Amino acid sequence: MYRNNKKYKSFILKSFLTFYLLTLLLGQSTAKESVVEKNDTTSIQILLSDSVLSPQEKINLAIKLSQLYKESNSSKSLFYDSLATTIALKNNKKKSYQEGILRSINLLIKTNQYQKAEQQLIQYRHTLADTNSPELAEYYYLSGQNYYSWSKFKKAGPLFEKARDTYIELGIKEGIAKSMVGEAKIWGIYNDYFNVVGLLQRALDIYDQLNDELGMASVYEIMGKTMQSWEKLDRADYFYQNALFYYNRYDKIEDKINIHLLLGNLYLEKNENKKALKEFYFARNLSIKTKASKDEAWSIQLIGEAYYNLKKYDSALIYLNKSEPLLKKYEMKQQQSVALYNIARIEFQKKTYNKATQYANEALQLTQQINSKQLQMEVILLISNIYKEQKSFQKAFTFLEQYNQLRAKVFSDQNRKMVSDMEVKYEADQKAKQYDLLKQQDTETKVKLQKEKNNRLLTVIGSLSILSILLTIIFFIRRDNKSNKKNLNLLYEKNQEIIKQQEQLSLLNEELFTSRESYRSIVENATIGIYQTNKKGEILFANKTLIRMLGFSTLGSMKKEIQLNKNKEWRKGFIKLLEEQEIVTGREDVWTKKSGNKIFVKESAWIIKDHEGKTLYYEGIIEDISKRKIAEDKVQKAQLRLQQINQELRKRNLELKAAKTEAEEANQAKTMFLANVSHEIRTPLNSIIGFANLLEPLVKSRQEKEFIKSILTSSNSLLSLINDILDLSKIQAGKLELSYEPVFLPKIIEEIKRIFYPQVEEKRLKLKIEITPEGQNFFLIDLSRFRQILFNIIGNAIKFTDQGIIKLLFDIHESAEKKGNFNFIIKIKDTGTGIPIEDQKHIFDAFKQAKGNQKSGIGLGLNISQRLVEIMGGRIKLKSEPGKGSEFAIYISGIKSKNMKYQQIDETFKNEITNSINEDINDSEQKNPEIKKQINYLFGENFKQVLKTKIISEIQDFASVMLEFANKEGLKNLEKESQNLSDASKEFDIEAVEFILNKIKAYFRQDNNL
Questions:
Q1: For the residues 310-325, what does the mean pLDDT come to?
Q2: d(CA 378, CA 342)
Q3: Three-state DSSP state, 25
Q4: Looking at 593-688, which runs of residues are DSSP E strands?
């Protein structure tokens, strides 16, 4: 009774302790961390010190605690596994100890703690004997799995092979299958897809024999990954769907989430973004259902990526922003960097560059932490493009340099990896060959030893039991053996001959079948009709094309209604000609279709005869030429119509020629009239401008100054208009000739800046001018016309731009076709009102202006500029957007360069003038040695005054005095220049006056510092 009470009390105490420990464990899921640690410590102390629970019960309780923590807290699960193994080791329970270590190893591999797993595996190996056992095979497999997950593939491969061989010797099929899957994953690393597929197929067969559907599902999943890497995307889809089918059957939630994510990524690769989106939503819903937070975070990020590929950037931004903090929380740095990169790309698309830069820099830091070089390259390139769009070219260039350096490094690493992979693959192949050879030798040795053993045994038995019988019948056996051997040899030879003949016959049959099918396919699918008839004209065969051509559905219906020789007397002649020539080609005929409609055909036929020369049947081909006949008829009618039109055109041409001659004569008269009138008007107009200039400094009244200013403005506008009309008339008359001279482009640029400075400043615009390095040279062009083109277009740009910038770009580069020739691309871009689209095609027409243009002018400037560019052998193009501005681009090619610096040209010009002056003065010095001093003494001060004031009346007086002096002293060049100066000042040609004064200035350089 006492004993029973003791057992009862022990049972109650054990139950209470177990309940207490489980209560402590369940309470840990909601308590704070400090409470959890306290409860753990309490439970450990109870487990170690309790004397009521047996060792096995303690081990089982620790295992239950480990299982409860397995998903939520891996470190605690490992702790309880370690506790179970400690108790097992302390109580000499080897099996429980081994099982505990295996649980720890699997959990360590799952949580990426590979080094600790390696230490545990070494500890586990010490518990195993050297003979082959399931535990040793499992050790090999887990070691291979750990090294594979650790990316130490060279170590993993041989261990998977050892595991497979051990499982084969033990006959454990499940182990063989999973070892083959491990080997396949190793070969997949080196992209040896044939080996991968072979191993996986064998593993799949084994799982099929075992009816292990989850094993089959895992193989299908790896098959899908292999096919995706192999770029066989449809096959990958097939295998993923098979895996998903089995996971659905067993409701494996985690595996289903993984497959949906794999399918989504596959569809992204196939650019089937809607399908991908659907799979990612499936994965997200399942992860929410199972509270798999990491999978949910990844699913949200991939949903954002799918929306990005669909160009639904707002939706993509919502999901990516939602996923980024979750990924950060669960330390999923690879996925987080991808999310940040995609957010930066979207912000870049939206032109919110600051946000884009922020997210891109965060993504760059993460890629550097995880050493993801490929993604790092993409992020750096994105940052460079962002800075480029922000015009921060220095930063953009810096990141672009980083990108190029990283790309070179990645390329080098990839090459090294390829070499390493090839070395590993070579070593693996060598080991495999050595292994196969050793295995073969071992098998041969075993067979040989067994054979020798059997022979010795038979010899002993025969010698003891049937020696006497053998001696008696040995003669008969030898005789029968010889006879049988001879018969067998003959029979074997005959069999070999029969087999050989059968193989030849089989090959001939196959060739005949292939040839027949090929011929049949060619005939049936030919685009022309093919037939076969007997002598009576009855159809024996017709291909599909001919049947359709004649309007029939089947050959049988055609045979009933078609008889080629019936009611066709003329066909007898055709048959006769065919019998004589054996072949007739290209004969045209009219056939009747089933519907009664006629068709035009071209027929070729030939005779098929037997070996005796008798006609068997006729064969032929038919081509429907109805369309061609109809077309020929139409062409004939069209030719007649064309002849009539040609006659009418000749008549009209004569009329047009007469009208053209009359128009040309009228146009020439008009041009001459415009030229004469313009010239006659310009002379008095120059006088008006000149006298107005003279009056301006004399008047004091403000009102009178305004009147004179109005006179000057109106006169200059009228002069510009007359010059344009005169230029237009010259161009139209074909009498405009270009005068080429060395021109230094930077000097023209300075002139542009100086002339347009007042207008630019008045409107508060920016004038930006750029020139390429090759433009710093002299080029042979017509300076005045080149200046006229630029001034017209730049003047228009300033006129129609109220705010912003005027850009002038001289892009000068040497021609690739002809050395020494240069191509000019000159672009004038403004931020003005722009030109309406409907007016752009007429903008270069004379007297045409854009609708709504309120600016002054009559629309000749662009027309003249275009004609001048064309005369120079170039072209001018316009790009304009209303409200945003316009760009005129001038393209001139084949411009020759004068290979001299500006200073050299200037000195040459000066030397020419100086030489002519020196000749002038030297001739006069012979008559008057004091001529130099005399010129400076008499005219030096007057010349200074003229250069300073440039008043027309003073210039005319100076020119008159100089002319008289030069004539008196016999200074021919000075006389000529003085006369030119007088003429230019009378016509108020300011540019000519300045040019001549600069030439005369040389007379005063030696003794006056002018």
A1: 86
A2: 11
A3: helix
A4: 598-609, 615-624
Classify residue 538 by its DSSP letter. Answer: B
Q: Supply φ then ψ for residue 888, to 5 degrees.
A: -105, 130
SS3 of residue 285 by DSSP: helix
Residues with Cβ within 8 Å of 384's Cβ and at least 6 positions away in sequence, in order, are 395, 396, 397, 399, 400, 403
pLDDT at residue 421 in the model: 47
The one-letter amino acid at 578: L
329-354 burial by CB neighbour count: b if 16+ within 10 A, else e?
eeebbebbbbbbbbbbbbbbeeeeee
Q: How far is CA 75 from CA 29, 71, 82, 109, 111, in A?
A: 15, 10, 10, 13, 9
**Among the listed residues 288, 331, 327, the one whose alpha carbon sits nearest the alpha carbon of residue 305:** 327
DSSP tag of 91 = T
Task: Give residue 432's pLDDT band: very low, low, confident or very high (50, 70, 90).
Answer: very low
- Looking at residue 890, its pLDDT comes to 94
* DSSP code, position 392: -
Rounded CA gap, 634 and 638, in Å? 6
d(CA 175, CA 182): 11
Rg (the chain; Cα; Å): 52
**Run of H or E including 979:** helix 972-986
Q: How is residue 466 written in tokens?
A: 């049937």
Question: Torsions phi, psi of 451, nearest 5?
Answer: -65, -45
Q: Are 826 and 901 in contact (CB under 8 A)?
A: no
> What would the two tokens of residue 644 be?
């009539």
Closest-CA residue to 607 (of 633, 575, 631): 575
CB atoms within 10 A of CB 202: 16
Which residues face 601 on adjacent strands? 589, 624
SS3 292: coil
Bridge partner list, 588:
602
Q: Which residues pair with 821 in a beta bridge?
A: 896
CA atoms within 13 A on the CB side of 613: 2
Lowest model confidence (mean pLDDT) among 606-610, 717-721, 866-870: 717-721
Amino acid at 430: Q
Two tokens, residue 990: 């300011």
Going by C-beta distance under 8 Å and a sequence separation of 6 or more, which residues neighbour residue 183? 157, 160, 161, 164, 199
DSSP letter for 1001, please. G
- pLDDT at 800 > cutoff 80: yes
Q: Angle at Cα 542 formed by Cα 541 and Cα 546, nearest 5°?
A: 170
Of 174, 173, 176, nearest in space to 164 by CA: 176
How far apart are alpha carbons 419 and 915 in whole angstroms? 78
Annotate 403-444 with three-state secondary structure.
Answer: HHHHHHHHHHHHHHHHHHHHHHHHHHHHHHHHHHHHHHHHHH
Kindly report the number of other CB atoms within 10 A of residue 172's CB atom: 16
* Structural element, H or E, at residue 770: strand 766-771
Exposure on the CB side of residue 723, measured as CA atoms within 13 A: 15
List Cβ neighbours of 442 (8 Å cut-off, separation of 6 or more). Answer: none
Residue 879: DSSP 8-state: E
User: Which residue has 């109870």 as its token pair?
Assistant: 46
**Cβ count near 790 (within 10 Å):** 20
Q: What does pLDDT average to over the chain?
A: 75
827: left (phi over 0), alpha (psi -120 to 50) or beta: beta
305 contacts 317 by C-beta, under 8 angstroms: no
Give the CA-trace dihedral at 900, 904, 905, 909, to 10 degrees: -160
Contact 834, 882 (CB under 8 A): yes
**Amino acid occupying residue 133:** S
E strand residue ranges, 841-908 = 875-881, 885-898
Give the pairing type, strands 539-542 and 741-744. unpaired
Tell me how far apart the alpha carbons of residues 59 and 73 are, in angstroms, rounded to a whole number: 19
Residue 458 has a pLDDT of: 63
- pTM: predicted TM-score of the whole model, two decimal places: 0.40
Q: Give bridge partners of residue 617 from the DSSP assignment.
A: 608
Coil/strand/helix, residue 599:
strand
DSSP 8-state secondary structure symbol assigned to residue 773: G
- 621: amino acid identity, one letter: I
